[in-house]
From TrEMBL:
It comes from Nakamurella multipartita (strain ATCC 700099 / DSM 44233 / CIP 104796 / JCM 9543 / NBRC 105858 / Y-104) (Microsphaera multipartita). InterPro entries: NT_sf. This is DNA polymerase beta domain protein region. It comes from the Bacteria.
Length: 257
């Protein structure tokens, strides 16, 4: 999270969030980390979320998780981005490299984000459970500590086969979603493809540009459309998006030569 590329309001918000976590969790708190676009240097003001992982020693009581939600929700700590996506993990879950969600509590809150607070059992099946293993893989590779040890010392990515399963599930989710297929789906597919081929995570726009510059046969036009849409242009053609996602999904699912 290069300081020169992030709005000071975001860094101030993260500092206050970490302070409130420290006050509420005390010695149970092991670390607070940014993931997602902030960690991958792809944060876009006005569009990106703030992704935060909180690491704790052991399971939290319901009263503690409720107090954390109250302290961090938009009404009590205004988010300077589209919204906050915060997930609390026990240290053993962060280090396990599992596919399961495994979180203690998740909180979605913000000025342009529907509120959500709950445990894994509260999450609707239609929203997918694959995001958490993907997020922990990004944290293991690039997470930025607001406080605590380096993220790579406490988060472990699922192994390549399991991670490929999660990435395929993410593309299936996009293909089945009621939300119209658009630029985010294309760039998510590019990120999945790039991670599978290179073993490295990039922010979604950077992954789109990297796939465009690669020798792999892809529908370059739909990636160009997606990148333009992310900058404010018209949405890419949904039929073309669907074909692109299906092609990437089939590539990821194909047996290794």
């Amino acid at each position: 999270m290069p300081a020169e590329s992030v709005d000071p309001a975001v860094t101030g918000y993260l500092s206050e969030l970490a302070r409130r976590c420290t006050d509420l969790l005390g010695p149970e708190l092991l670390g607070v980390y940014t993931g997602g676009s902030l960690a991958l240097d792809g944060y876009q003001a006005g569009r990106s979320d703030i992704d935060v992982a909180v690491l704790v020693r052991a399971a939290l009581s319901r009263s503690t998780t409720q107090a954390l939600v109250t302290a961090l929700r938009q009404e009590n700590l205004p988010c300077p981005a589209r919204g906050l996506e915060l997930v609390v993990y026990r240290a053993e879950i962060a280090a396990a490299g599992d596919l399961a969600p495994g979180f203690e509590i998740e909180l979605n809150t913000g000025p342009r984000m529907p509120f959500r607070a709950g445990e894994p059992a509260d999450r609707p099946a239609a929203d997918g459970s694959f995001w958490y293993g993907i997020d922990r893989s990004i944290l293991a590779a690039a997470g930025v500590p607001i406080l605590g040890p380096p993220a790579g010392e406490v988060f472990v990515s699922p192994d390549p086969t399991d991670l490929a399963t999660l990435l395929i599930q993410s593309l299936d989710w996009h293909l089945a979603s009621a939300v119209p297929l658009a630029d985010d789906a294309v760039l998510n597919a590019c990120r999945a493809r790039y991670r599978t081929v290179t073993g490295r995570w990039l922010a979604k726009p950077a992954a789109g540009r990297a796939v465009l510059g690669s020798a792999d046969p892809v529908d370059a036009a739909v990636i160009v459309q997606a990148l333009a849409a992310r900058a404010g242009g018209p949405a890419p053609d949904p039929d073309r998006v669907r074909r692109f996602l299906s092609d990437v999904r089939d590539d990821l699912a194909a047996p290794a030569p």
